[in-house]
């Protein structure tokens, strides 16, 4: 139990939104109603043995961009939250250049399920990956005004 307390204290002290986000190193560059965009500057730690970005990296930032597209909230101080329920990715090409950008759009919302689509574009403009995902809103988050955060 002591390990859990130390972990929670460490999280509180870092005041970061997500330790995983910090580990990977991606940044939100645009977030508006129905749209999310994530930028990742590629580093050696992101490469697989063939020295191209690992496919799992694409999945991480595409999932994050779609989560952003589904959860934008215009009410200051409120938030919307969701969890991924399905994610289909199609890998098209290895990335070239120094960064990749995941751009996601909200397609539809039905009850508490949001559906999004996304793509990853590299620094040279090549579409590297496309995806579609479904996200379930946590209670209250299906409302556009969100919940107090």
Q: Which tags fit this structure?
A:
149 residues; two-stranded antiparallel sheet; alpha+beta; Thiol Ester Dehydrase, Chain A; 8 strands; 3 helices; six-stranded antiparallel beta sheet; 24% helix
Could you characterize what this model shows?
The protein starts with a helix and ends with a strand. Strand 6 (113-122) and strand 7 (127-137) form a beta hairpin. It has three helices and eight strands. It has a single domain (18-148), classed as Hotdog Thioesterase (Thiol Ester Dehydrase, Chain A), CATH 3.10.129. With 149 residues, the protein is α+β, with helices and mostly antiparallel strands. The longest helix is centred in the middle third of the chain and has 17 residues, at 55-71. The strands form two sheets. The chain has a six-stranded antiparallel sheet with strand order 1-2-5-6-7-4, with helices on one face. Strands 3-8 form a two-stranded antiparallel sheet.
Give the gist of this structure:
The chain contains three helices and eight strands. It has 149 residues and is an alpha+beta fold.
Please, how many helices? 3
CATH superfamily: Hotdog Thioesterase
Q: Which whole number gives the mean pLDDT?
A: 91
The CATH class assignment is Alpha Beta
Report low-confidence residues grouped into runs of 5 or more: none
Q: Whole-number radius of gyration?
A: 16 Å
The biggest sheet, with number of strands, parallel, antiparallel or mixed sense and barrel status, is: 6 strands, antiparallel
Q: What is the first-to-last residue Cα distance?
A: 28 Å
**Class by helix and strand content?**
alpha+beta
Adjacency order of strands in the biggest sheet: 1-2-5-6-7-4
Shape: globular
**Order of SSEs:** HHEEHEEEEEE
Q: How many domain regions?
A: 1
Please bin the fraction of helical residues: 10-25%
Number of strands: 8
CATH architecture: Roll
């Amino acid at each position: 139990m002591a390990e859990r307390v130390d972990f929670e204290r460490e999280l509180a002290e870092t005041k970061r939104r997500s330790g995983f986000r910090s580990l990977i190193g991606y940044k939100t560059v645009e977030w508006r109603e129905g749209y999310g965009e994530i930028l990742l500057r590629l580093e050696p730690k992101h490469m697989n043995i063939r020295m191209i970005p690992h496919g799992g990296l694409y999945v991480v930032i595409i999932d994050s961009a779609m989560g952003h597209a589904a959860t934008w909230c215009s009410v200051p101080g409120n938030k919307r939250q969701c969890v991924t329920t399905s994610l289909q990715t199609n890998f098209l090409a290895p990335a070239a250049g120094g960064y990749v950008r995941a751009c996601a759009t909200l397609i539809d919302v039905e009850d508490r399920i949001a559906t999004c689509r996304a793509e990853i574009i590299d620094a040279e403009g090549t579409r590297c990956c496309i995806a579609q995902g479904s996200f379930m809103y946590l209670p209250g988050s299906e409302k556009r005004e969100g919940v107090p955060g």
